[in-house]
């Protein structure tokens, strides 16, 4: 059991100890390299790099590698874990062998030279290593944990008389959930089966000491990602202990004003890293759902007031007319600079208050509590509807310049500012949102699925899953990507190098939740068969 | 205690076990970085790279390092050990920090880019590392053991918000001898004191699990180096246990013909790596001297026959006229391709037989044994003198083409083919050896010192120590270099890149033996004061 000490970020020691008690055991399993592959320029492939098998990895032990050679290994699926190499040389009495290695989730990331990196978040996230092997034969474990499907090995030093053989290369994969994914539901076609498996694998790979957002990049516990992971967890691995641990870590790391952080960094001691207003508001929904899913509402009793307190950071931005003035808060909603977030964050707050009211009822608070909360939500709803809903067009605008966006409608529907009937109309009619700002991240795409479900639009929900998430699958994804724009292979929100994008990201793996909870499990493929 | 198993190189298990029992304890001590230095182009400096202090390393903890920065640390002396770094960042919530590091013995090696390496033995011997630090603050130990005075640190990844501070950098130095060098003898001037200290430091740094030839490159137990180390050890650290361990390892690894190897590699199991005729012959002298120095002749009794057996590999090359025909043996003598080794190897054999005769007497063999051995030595001596000594010129030629070399005279003197009087004449008169092949390596330079001593030429001995080894000292050496040619900064026997040369090498550290055993401890500096 890990003991956390109180640090200077106002973490609460007692609450941290409750999280430490829940530190999960991490299971490991061995995955040998499956094949040696060629990476080739191929404009039709995702990010223009194609992968073709050169030979099965079983034959690797007979290949002699010399200085200057590069081989690329494919492990057959995206994994998180340590990498072990077993090497032999054909002559032991020679100079040390030096290898440069690159672990990569996607072919482009594997193929591009790390020296050319120009991304915004840092080359440090590229999974590069350099190792020196002085004695042969040798078994080596690379020093870090990686998220990878591909491993590039460059022999940068190896004297003439000492060519090297890679006798074995394996990933010691790791997850608290173990290796096995959840079996598909009966009746699913191949596409839905693949999508669901990629969701489970995404979650599995993020299930480590904490529920990470991306095991390649960030590796943190983010509140926004966590709520979505908790949904998928409920229909797959059901590790409610890990969700509880996450909730406790976030709650314990609230700041001096009592605000729950957007993210927790675990080392050297758990501490807050980012404060994001919409994430803090969502905490009430996370807590409500966890109490429902796990059947254990003790933690709801413990943390209800903290969840309710998050509303105060929203309330302080409201004027008497119900206009919201952002008081320097970071509001996320989506990866989109130009998005006006005003209506969306008000709706998030309404949705949070509705969730709190439900939680109050679940926890058997005096009925007055839920009633007061609902009254406040109703007030905000009508103020926003009055200021920003256009009854003629049936859309919800946002902000002073009355910006039109998908985000606004999605959150308007979830908050009940738009009725489900109005929601159906606006989401079904492409003309209504003509020129409106589209969703950018899978995070907002998830909330679109929630809006579809709330409006009973199961066909559209399935179509979106097939087109958007299915689009990633047919472009090679077996875990879902942090960032995906079908028409832009190289899109990144982080500067200009897509290699900082995570290809296994918590917030992208939610279709499995909808597929496993929807009443209509199978829908025809409405995206066309040749879309990628 | 390490147990060695019998391997496929005909190692003898029982003998290996006796070596394993003698596995030494390695002592460690911490050496913090002394200063941050600038490496600057400077034609007057050795290898054209000058070193100047930028600021004391104590101030490092206040320096913020950003992506793209390089710093060079000087530890104040050449050390062997592990490197530990303590890092902090000015903002914990950011991308990992990636450092490229290069540990180096000499300024040029530190300054030159590893990517430009073009040496013969392999870039693998350059002491390069790349590490990634995910969590801050962090204490890191680099993965390998290095021989270094300088450490170059390049910050190759560090996001803008996460500049890094090197709070502490230290070498955990290691040697079986511990940190302390042997104090100088009274009456020495500064130059002799420095030379002697560099000899002790060279030996200290080579004293590891085995007595290594070079702790940067090779890291093996070489018989030729060992004999010279054993001489210095006798007047400094007196670790006869380590010499005995080395003798046993070499003896245990003899091949199927009973030939003792030139070198032993320890991993995965001790095994022979090179068979060198003159090294095998020298084994008898090594054994004799060890019995004398340690005062324990048990090992002499055990290994006498094995030492004697080495002569058979020489004898099989002799025809009835005393001409030696090399039967595909590697004969070292010196790092010099064009050197004819015929006379030198015959002399080495004579010297070895003389040594065996002395050992037979020390071990109280029947007097007949020494007599027979001496008779054989006398026979070879007179045959060689008849075939290759020119009484008119007073020099010993070598081979069919009657090549003239320093090596021939040196070994002729040691073998008594030239009398000490003849030796004095030839070594004192520069005209005699005009056009003769000069010594290349410090290894042969050592045998020149032995020849001087045998001839009673203490002034010339001291002059050579001051000029040759003193020349390295005034060019910055605090351990002695494997390779040194005053007029050629970039000379290397290994291809065209001097970075494969070792700057701390066993066979170069013997002046200390002569200084500490000579009767005349102080001689004037005859090299001139401005020679470097």
Sheet with the most strands, sense and barrel status of chain A: 9 strands, antiparallel
Largest interchain contact: A-B, 38 and 37 residues
Can you tell me the overall shape of chain A?
globular
Order of helix and strand elements from N to C terminus of chain A: HEEEEEHEEEEHEHHEEHHHHEEEHHHHH
Q: What are the low-pLDDT stretches of chain A, counting only 5+ consecutive residues below 50?
A: 1-10
Description:
- The first copy, chain A, has 532 residues and is of the alpha+beta class.
- Chain A has helices at 13-21, 107-111, 190-206, 223-235, 240-252, 277-294, 298-315, 342-362, 367-388, 406-414, 420-428, 442-454, 458-474, 511-517, and strands at residues 27-32, 35-41, 49-56, 70-89, 97-104, 127-133, 138-141, 146-157, 164-175, 221-222, 263-265, 271-274, 389-390, 395-398, 403-404.
- In chain A, strands 1, 2, 3, 4, 5, 6, 7, 8 and 9 form a nine-stranded antiparallel sheet that branches. A three-stranded antiparallel sheet of chain A has the order 10-11-12.
- Residues 1-10 of chain A have low confidence and may be disordered.
């Amino acid at each position: 059991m890990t003991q956390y000490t109180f640090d200077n970020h106002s973490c609460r020691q007692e609450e941290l100890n409750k999280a430490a008690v829940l530190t999960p055991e991490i299971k490991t399993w061995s995955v040998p390299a499956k094949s040696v592959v060629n990476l080739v320029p191929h404009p039709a492939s995702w990010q223009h790099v194609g992968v073709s098998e050169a030979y099965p990895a079983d034959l690797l032990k007979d290949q002699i590698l010399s200085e200057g050679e590069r081989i690329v290994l494919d492990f057959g699926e995206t994994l998180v874990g340590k990498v072990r190499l077993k090497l032999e040389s054909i002559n032991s009495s020679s100079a040390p062998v030096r290898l440069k290695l690159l672990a990569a989730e996607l072919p482009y990331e594997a193929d591009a030279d790390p020296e050319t990196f120009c991304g915004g978040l840092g080359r440090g996230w590229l999974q590069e290593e350099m190792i020196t092997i002085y004695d042969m034969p040798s078994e080596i474990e690379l020093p870090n944990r990686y998220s990878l499907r591909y491993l590039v090995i460059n022999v940068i030093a190896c004297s003439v008389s000492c060519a090297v053989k890679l006798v074995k290369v394996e990933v010691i994969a790791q997850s608290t959930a173990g290796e096995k994914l959840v079996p598909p539901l009966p009746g699913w076609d191949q596409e839905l089966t693949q999508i669901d498996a990629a969701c489970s694998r995404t979650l599995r790979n993020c299930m480590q000491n904490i529920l990470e957002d991306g095991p390649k990049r960030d590796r943190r516990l983010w509140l926004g990602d966590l709520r979505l992971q908790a949904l998928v967890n409920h229909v797959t691995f059901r590790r409610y202990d890990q969700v509880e641990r996450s909730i406790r870590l976030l709650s314990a790391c609230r700041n001096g004003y009592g605000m729950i952080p957007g993210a927790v960094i675990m080392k050297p001691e758990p501490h807050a890293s980012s404060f994001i207003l919409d994430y803090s508001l969502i905490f009430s929904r996370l807590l409500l759902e966890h109490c429902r899913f796990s059947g254990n509402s003790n933690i709801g009793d413990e943390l209800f007031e903290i969840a309710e307190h998050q509303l105060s950071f929203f309330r302080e931005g409201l004027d008497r007319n119900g206009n919201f003035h952002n008081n320097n808060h970071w509001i996320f909603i989506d990866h989109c600079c130009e998005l006006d977030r005003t209506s969306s964050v008000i709706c998030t707050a309404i949705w949070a208050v509705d969730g709190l009211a439900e939680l109050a009822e679940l926890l058997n608070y005096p009925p007055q509590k839920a009633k007061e909360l609902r009254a406040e939500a109703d007030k905000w709803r009508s103020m926003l509807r009055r200021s920003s809903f256009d009854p003629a067009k049936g859309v919800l605008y946002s902000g002073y310049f009355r910006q039109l966006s998908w985000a606004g409608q999605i959150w308007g529907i979830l908050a009940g500012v738009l009725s489900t009937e109005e929601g159906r109309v606006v989401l079904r009619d492409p003309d209504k949102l003509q020129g409106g700002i589209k969703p950018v991240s899978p995070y907002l795409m998830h909330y679109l699925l929630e809006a579809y479900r709330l409006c009973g639009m199961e066909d559209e929900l399935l179509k979106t899953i097939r087109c958007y998430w299915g689009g990633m699958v047919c472009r090679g994804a077996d875990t879902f990507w942090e960032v995906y724009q079908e028409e832009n292979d190289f899109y990144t929100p982080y500067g200009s190098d897509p290699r900082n994008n995570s290809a296994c990201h918590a917030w992208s793996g939610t279709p499995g939740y909808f597929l496993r909870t929807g009443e209509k499990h199978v829908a025809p493929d409405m995206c066309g068969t040749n879309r990628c």
